[in-house]
């Protein structure tokens, strides 16, 4: 039974509109000078993300779907992420803030007209509104990237959001959960807007393992620091140890010590590091070293997904840990409703069938696994989304952070990055063999 075409159209329009509201909030919050400045060589100027969002939307929806010629062919190469590394983007003849806003708005106006009269079926790209959903997810992904740029920006705070509630409901009964070994269904062949790397659904077996009920907290991570974790090469992968020594790293990014206390800077505010919050802004190497110090290890990607989706009662894999229903604020901390992760131990309504908590939202969780294609993978609709990143250079992150919009978050969603990266909203949980 297909979804009613008008409902699909409404969903696509709502997803595009929500993404643009977030883009506007992130880019209207700062001056033109801040939009064109480079706040870190790791990031693009915000004004690049803004026009890149419009350009990808133009290329895919007006170009590939509607078959129209480029509005401004000369700018396409400026906004091709593969032609210019982030560190060089400020030197490009980019559209200025007003021109970038106007361009993105003009594309959007034409896209809404297209959506009105395009059947959401007939081709793989249009099926169930996929191309429109892909573009809404792309914009939300860049909104998270822009939020990372905001976090790296110096100066007074410009963003605000309510604090998350303290944990609601009963605390988890135990610190770790036993996930029984055996096969489960990993990935998806039915989720309409799932991206190519999440496909196809396939059977994967894992051995029984224990996994942390909640992500590793700042308090737990501080014990690793206090125990000299950053001074002990035996806990570290060789490249991680090299990074620690070369950059004199001794704590997560944005932490510093003052008067015997750990403080951290968060969107322009300095505050004591909160004990019960999941640790944030750690590299894969830091996560891996902590786990080794704790006598544990990172979960593999398959273990993470089995813990998150497998329902032992039915043998099915769920869309989310709590079931197939779309996320609500009771399930998970998503969508930049807050500017930080929620304390560990909340969201009982978002628990998996076995009782694992906060798998979705709060912090991206590093896994032990390299980013690799599933058996039967097919690049769609372009090789540069996933395929060119497959291999041992990138590690997989799962679950999504507080900065991920629900449209770009599912039990099957896969993120990836270099193991040295720590400006992303990354944390982790640990596991152990039985
Ligand atoms: C999936 C988050 C790794 O931002 O590099 C954005 C998403 N791809 N534009 C990224 C993406 C093309 C991608 N990540
Ligand atoms: Fe992009």
TrEMBL record:
Fe cation binds at residues 52, 138, 142. It is an enzyme of class 1 (oxidoreductase). Keywords: Iron, Metal-binding, Monooxygenase, Oxidoreductase. Residues 174-432 form the Sulfatase-modifying factor enzyme-like domain. Its cofactor is Fe(2+). HAMAP family: EgtB. NCBIfam families: egtB_TIGR03440. Catalyzes the oxidative sulfurization of hercynine (N-alpha,N-alpha,N-alpha-trimethyl-L-histidine) into hercynyl-gamma-L-glutamyl-L-cysteine sulfoxide, a step in the biosynthesis pathway of ergothioneine. This is Hercynine oxygenase. It comes from Streptomyces katrae. The gene is egtB.
